[in-house]
Amino acid sequence: MNIINATLRKRQGLFTVTCDGGRISAITAQPDLLLAKDDDIDAAGQLLIAPLVEPHIHLDATLTAGDPQWNMSGTLFEGIERWGQRKATITHEDTKARAHTTIRMLAEHGIQHVRTHIDVTDPTLGALKAMLEVREEARHLVDLQIVAFPQEGIESYDNGRALMEQAIELGADVVGGIPHFENTREQGVSSIKFLMDLAERRGCLVDVHCDETDDPHSRFLEVLAEEARVRGMGSRVTASHTTAMGSYDNAYCSKLFRLLKHSGINFVSCPTESIHLQGRFDTFPKRRGVTRVAEIDRAGMNVCFGQDSIKDPWYPLGNGNILRVLDAGLHICHMMGFEDLARSLDLVTDNSARTLNLGERYGIEVGRPANLVILDAESDYEAVRRQAKARVSIRGGQVLMTRVPERVEFA
Ligand code: 17E
Ligand code: FE2
Fold first, then answer.
1. Using one digit for the tens of pLDDT, what is the confidence trace for 26-56?
2. What spacing in Å lies between the alpha carbon of 293 and ligand 2's midpoint?
3. In this structure, are 392 and 264 located in the same domain?
4. Is there an atom of ligand 1 within 6 Å of 154 CB?
5. Tell me: the pLDDT tens digits for 171-193?
6. DSSP-derived secondary structure letter, 152
7. Are residues 104 and 181 part of one domain?
8. What is the pLDDT of residues 380-391, one digit of tens each?
9. Distance 102 CA to ligand 2 centre (A)
10. How far is residue 344's CA from residue 330's CA, in Å, rounded to a whole number?
11. Ligand 1 pocket, 117 CB below 6 A?
12. Could you confirm whether 212 is annotated as catalytic?
């Protein structure tokens, strides 16, 4: 199969990308526009990209907002309390149905790689068991990485350590954490040592909800980064949210950034979620409550954007469209200069793939899996400005989804 007349990011001209046996077999520069023949797919000069990536979403909690009660304060902590009420009633089938519906919403928007945080502070590990089945059942749509996420703490939840170990034993891919929620600073620190030991021992990736608060004294990021540095695990470790960094002063941050760079860890920011949940204890002036995305990026470190929630106890909106989060994130993080806009898709494609350690399983290169998306725009800038839709999504060299563009007719 050939995809003709494709614009590729960061390359000049038009290309034909050829897929064979589920892999990309050739990338050929075209001198001119070609006419489609046989089973060619015509990109018509639009962008052909590696799939969009969702690096951070809670698929166990998705589509539960207001059930049984709405989060009225809009804080992270009320979200955790409301989720606790819903968690008491989840069933295997209910969890699977909501996760499958959400994965279809993601796939519709050209996403084919997903990392999901699943709450394992539950003596039955019910949501995790459901999600392990979903990971297999949804394979034709997305590659799913499951994080064992201790929503109510590792040290401050009964049997928290044992539940984390069991979750990895059952087949979770990534070790999670939530040090800022542990009862004491010491527990936060020991939870990070525990989870890094577990990940190192079991050969797992790490993705910690880290300092998701406006409290400038929440400084677990330095602990996570140092553990990653000493163990040489930086590229396998991710710090999610790190919203407290938006409240750290510059003197501390300048010291912190040196360590962060040495550690080589990755960052995920969820800007729509954080602008909603943070700043809740401020009057005016009100903090943005978002980590220093532009500064992390400009310091040469890896940072990407995630959605976090779709209609759950923490965040009532969301629809699976990661370009909506990119749009909001660029605004919120002051990344609207031309150079940022011109490479903005990095934040939802290549940078996210690096966070997920996808390596050679991702990217438009000969020999890599033929997972490709045609976006209805000719550049990153236009894609984000016009909120371009995925027109065709190809997975393993087969068309997975096509979208008929909407047509507007004036009277
Ligand atoms: N749980 C948490 O601790 N933080 C979040 N942002 C969500 C769930 C969505
Ligand atoms: Fe999260």
1. 999 999 999 999 999 999 999 999 999 999 9
2. 16
3. no
4. no
5. 999 999 999 999 999 999 999 99
6. T
7. yes
8. 999 999 999 999
9. 16
10. 8
11. no
12. yes
